[in-house]
Amino acid sequence: MENKTITLSNGVEMPMLGFGTYKIPDGLEVIDSVTNAINVGYRLIDTAWFYNNEKGVGRAIKNSGMLRSDIFLTTKLWNSHHGYDITLHAFDQSLKNLDTDYIDLYLIHWPGKDKFVDTWRAFIRLYEEGRVNAIGVCNFLDTHIQTLFDQTGMMPMLNQIELHPWLWRQNTIEYCQAFNIALQAWSPLMRAGKMLEVETIVNIAKSHNKTPAQIILRWELQQGISVIPKTTHIARMKENINVFDFQLTTSEMQEIKTLNESRGIGSDPYTMMLDFE
To answer: Is 42 a catalytic residue?
Structure first.
């Protein structure tokens, strides 16, 4: 069985399976959800400025009784904050919201059109100053990442993109793997229950005495891809994290891969320009 952590290209160790907080409202709801996730065993917590719940996430971590160093905390820079100086300012605001001295992983949320290189230069500065332990991107495709490297000489340490059996970006996956860029799947269960009803997945789940959600998460993890499923229900938190005690066969892995329809729920990274100036 593979490890429950992945080592990023700079040597930082990150949990393979984390807890996502998208659309969990700030205040008691996100505080309770993150608290429950930590109590269940999650050690990677993923948030973003755009989620508008950084304060609650920070409060939950602060009150958890865990050492800050035992929690791997990710947040993201929103589109309207692109540009060198504004990125540095936005980072300070996220630090303040989260009530922490550093971020484990800081990500550019979307590439946008023409400011992401300057933004990446600010990320490099934050990394070199030791204010973040690792830097990366979200929703970047091959050409975006290559541009970053060509212009700055530094590759992201992680790329968080929408990945699940119905949307398997093989070209981007192979590109990232070739350059030792860790991959992390957002919406690994596609947020929609329909994928959990697919006959192929249901049958494989029965053969392993697991749930369809566990099969999908296991399928992604077994390919070396980190996942950050989101739920506010404790029972599902426990279900989602209980995926390291079995292994899918080669034929089962291939069966699930054939489900790809290049169909996702997120925006196209090449055209998504919401809030970009």
So the answer is: no
Mapped onto helix, strand or coil, the DSSP state of residue 226 is strand
Q: Mention every residue, 6+ apart, whose C-beta is less than 8 A from residue 174.
A: none
Contact 127, 156 (CB under 8 A): no
What are 228-266's pLDDT values in tens digits?
999 999 999 999 999 999 999 999 999 999 999 998 888
- Calculate Rg over the CA atoms of the chain: 18
Query: Exactly one of 51, 84, 127, 270 is catalytic; which is it?
Result: 51
Q: Which residues contact 124 (CB under 8 A, 6 or more apart)?
A: 135, 152, 154
Q: Rounded to an integer, what distance in angstroms lies between the CA atom of residue 172 and that of residue 260?
A: 14
Query: If we measure between CA atoms, which residue out of 71, 5, 81 comes closest to residue 48?
Result: 81
| Separation CA 163–CA 174 (nearest Å) | 13
| Distance from C-alpha of 125 to C-alpha of 137, rounded to nearest angstrom | 15
Name the burial class of residue 243, with classes exposed (0-12), middle (13-18) and buried (19+) by CB atoms within 10 angstroms of its CB: buried
Q: pTM of the predicted model, to two decimals?
A: 0.96
